[in-house]
Amino acid sequence: MQAYKNTRKSDMYAPYGKCPACGWSGRDWGFKYRNLCKRCHTQWRKEQAEERRKNKLPNTTVEITEGIVVTEHVHNRLRLKAKRKVGDTASYWLARFIPVIAVVGTMHLIDSVKENGNSDQTIFGIMFGGLFLAVASYCIFNSVWVRKIEEKTANLANDRQQKIQEQQRFYASSEWRLVREQVIQEQGHVCQECRRRITTDYDLTVDHIKPRSKFPELALDKSNLQVLCRRCNSAKGVTYNEASITNQVTASF
Q1: Distance in angstroms between the alpha carbons of the first and the last residue of the chain
Q2: Distance from the CA of 129 to the CA of which of 90, 181, 195, 235 falls in 20 to 30 A?
Q3: 71 DSSP β-pair partners
């Protein structure tokens, strides 16, 4: 049984009950909600929010290339990454400078034509020609730059699709499932980061200490695996603590 840690006076009037999740019994205002203690009810709400986020369907999808469809959010992220990789090319700067030069040159030409006393039709023709040159130059050079961005976005989407398919094959393999069960049996249902006991299968994950994307040779090495709750696993991402890895290797010897 867990020790009762609440010390607020208001808990004296809280409903009495026994939490079916952790087994603690006593007075807790959390028993007003789904018959769970406050701590377990908070964890339940987090799991429900994660489940809704996981099952939430995207509002819009974008087909980048044939057979590759992503959400609008992923498409925007890939496009920003493509812009950073392509950078400001010569066509990008030409699309910005040539229209400005064309407009400024047209204005000076119109002033000189007015001083010579030419007709309004000549002035209108020069104005129309300068405006056409500015718009045409921007459209041509900017389209070249945008085409490079689209090609780079398609390449990034293709690489992303291949990584997803490779991950699906790996995590569906019998070798990974066997090693995963062995790690869970050895380490138990306890998060190695926050030391919290994991009570649901959905919250139970087996994490690569050194990321599999950077160290593929350690993908099935049990010394590189640890049990984490979903929250700690998401917070860790693909980063790893070199000091903690060094301590684990030293302790193994």
Answers
A1: 36
A2: 90
A3: 61
Place of tokens 């010897």: 253
Contacts by 46-55 with C-beta closer than 8 Å and gap 24+? 46/231, 47/200, 47/202, 47/203, 50/202, 50/230, 51/202
Interaxial angle between packed helices 90-115 and 120-171, expressed in degrees from 0 to 180 and rounded to the nearest 10: 170
Which residues partner with 118 through β-bridges? none
Indicate the SS3 state at residue 81: helix
Write the burial class of residue 83 (CB in 10 Å: 0-12 exposed, 13-18 middle, 19+ buried). middle
> For residue 102, what is the enclosing H or E element?
helix 90-115
Q: What is the pLDDT of residues 38-87, one digit of tens each?
A: 788 888 888 888 777 777 665 678 888 778 888 888 888 999 999 999 88
In degrees, to the nearest 5, what angle opens at C-alpha 210 toward C-alphas 208 and 216? Answer: 85
* Chain centre to alpha carbon of residue 49: 17
Query: What DSSP character marks residue 2?
Result: P
Give strand pairing partners of 18: 25
For residue 227, list its beta bridge partners. 206
DSSP state of 65: E
CB atoms within 10 A of CB 209: 19
The contacts of residue 163 (CB under 8 Å, 6+ apart) are none
